[in-house]
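Journal club prep, notes for RB
We'll compare a predicted complex against what the paper describes. Inputs for the FE2/S2 (inorganic) cluster case:
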Amino acid sequence: MSDSFVTVCRVGDLTEGQGRTVVVDDRLVAIFLVSGEYRAIDDLCPHQGASLGAGCVEDGEVYCPWHGWRFRLSDGKWADNPRLGIDVFETRVVGEEVQVRVGGGK
Ligand code: FES
């Protein structure tokens, strides 16, 4: 697995609160634009594997589209039990490119 940033979309491709699923180093990553910042988390819901990139965002949390489990986009914690969580990945904007790094997951 690479430890470098990978371009996943361009600034302006996502609207506020919108997510999408991208592939970074053979891994599915859900990326969102929230309050003007890009957030990236593991795309697979740990419950039954739904794509979190298709979920709705509210108050900094994404709702899984299948059964509504909520995950905080800031740290990947499951809102109903913060002892559990999913990976969160570093993002950055370089020029017009939005980039994600999965190798250095937080
Ligand atoms: S698959 Fe995500 S809550 Fe069930």
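Talking point for the session: The chain has one domain: 6-104.
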